[in-house]
Amino acid sequence: MAAQRDLWDAIVIGAGIQGCFTAYHLAKHRKQVLLLEQFFLPHSRGSSHGQSRIIRKAYAEDVYTQMMDECYQIWAQLEQEAGIQLHRQTELLLLGMKENPELKTIQATLSRQGIEHQCLSSEELKERFPNIQFTGGEVGLLDKTGGVLYADKALRVLQNAICQLGGTVRDGEKVVEIRPGLPVVVKTTSGSYQAKSLVITAGPWTNQLLHPLGIQLPLQTLLINVCYWREKVPGSYSASRAFPCFLGLDQAPHHIYGLPSGEYPGLVKVCYHHGNSVDPEKRDCPTAVSDIQVLCRFVRDHLPGLKPEPDIMERCMYTNTPDEHFVLDRHPKYDNIVIGAGFSGHGFKLSPVVGKILYELSMKLTPSYDLALFRISRFPGLGKAHL
To answer: How much is the pTM?
Structure first.
């Protein structure tokens, strides 16, 4: 265990992907950083575990597409530093009806930002992706930058990098009290620490930590069923056979997405981008499986080369804001307490830049991006943050 410091430059609470990248940027800039995690690492209790995530530049909002440009650079830099592959380019296929407004908006954003993409007609889709069954005249939008991130590997690489850069990671330490001030005092089940600044990246546990600090964000914790479906012919939906990641935009009321087979031999990850509200302390209780029925119908109708019942079901949690945009801001009252929350099931790929922004906020630096979309003050009654 590293020696106790009298005063840290920053403490980061929560060693998911956002907290890890925040601590990484702090350590890279030679700040004395302490990363606290309530569970013993590695763990599968939050939102950052599992083998894979989709990476893409295809977004409706320009700011995310712009952020992703830098994210790809940081992911590549991290790969080079660690000598470990963390990403595989597979392309991302967005599917929707020609008149789908979201599809049109994303295509316009990609064009405006100069991102390589391709529009595919119904006929071109059928020719290029014969193992997808198109039933209603869907068209496609191919984000050439799309691919797969190796999530568990990324967490391990980051946690190792933080320590190599002089940071400290302490797991199995649950935060039991935060005393605001200068310095801010953080008490855990194992000790008490002081820091010039505090960054809270606690996922589903965010509001538990914020409640004693006089603020509650409109966050909803959802339990997500992560499903894997067996290929009838092994390898037929693999990246090596040019099968892309995909995102179905017309599967109302929520999207369905999938990744090529790879993490489990012969199994394809196909999931519903929504779940059931859950207390994070009770995430292992039985929940409704209506989303599984939606997925079974989707696989049966559109992916005929897969068996229409999932072989493996795992669990993950989303922490959603009402508008599904992140919270990246300082506490409205305590400007040395920074909050990163509400990543709404699409934050993993953006974590390199999210971590950079949270580092900048914690060090009172000018943020690299316009944070208007991410301010706490956009929620009624929560006051104006000091940015």
So the answer is: 0.94
